[in-house]
Amino acid sequence: MVKIGIIGGSGMYSLLNDAENIQKETEYGVPSDGISVGRIEGIDIAFIPRHGRAHTIPPHKVPYKANIEALASMGVERIVATNAVGSLNPDYKPGDFVLFDQFMNFTSGREDTFFHGPSVVHVSTADPYCPEMRSIALGKAADMGLEVHANGTVAVINGPRFSSKAESMYF
């Protein structure tokens, strides 16, 4: 059973060895594309291209709940999501990696929960990112000599646009 999933971009399509493509459908619709299941250094991995293999799904149309549900239905317990974004921190340079430890969600018009009742559920997001996965990523990055910032807050807005100057100043 695959325990680790990756939701990533176009630069990651050849990441897996001996990958097979699996089609899934969920109660939230179909994922961005078929799920590639293969191995990296002997570890089973499931990969979904966030914007589809042909890179045709704009950010505001990514079926994020279907992507997550499809991976969960395969037994995935941990998801690594990559992205390429700008930075408001002048100390961060192009090519640096940032391991987010917090987020600010400024999106609207999207349902951001999997809980629909009848019970009331309150989910803590005080520490939204897995400390074990972050520790592994930091260790691997250090082994590879990569420039990594161990903490960072991602401010998420509705795409496909970037933030205005005023929004950037606010953030």
TrEMBL record:
Keyword Transferase tagged: yes
InterPro entries assigned to the protein according to its UniProt record, in alphabetical order: MTAP (IPR010044), Nucleoside_phosphorylase_d (IPR000845), Nucleoside_phosphorylase_sf (IPR035994), Purine_phosphorylase-2_CS (IPR018099)
Signal sequence annotation: none
Keywords: Glycosyltransferase, Transferase
CDD domains noted in UniProt: MTAP_SsMTAPII_like_MTIP
UniProt GO molecular function: S-methyl-5-thioadenosine phosphorylase activity
A Pfam family this chain is assigned to: PNP_UDP_1
One annotated Gene Ontology cellular component of this protein: cytosol
Domain Nucleoside phosphorylase span(s) in chain numbering: 3-168
GO BP, sorted A to Z: L-methionine salvage from methylthioadenosine; nucleoside metabolic process
PANTHER family hit by this protein: S-METHYL-5'-THIOADENOSINE PHOSPHORYLASE (PTHR42679:SF2)
The family this protein is said to belong to: Belongs to the PNP/MTAP phosphorylase family.
Stated name of the protein: 5'-methylthioadenosine phosphorylase II
Protein species of origin: mine drainage metagenome
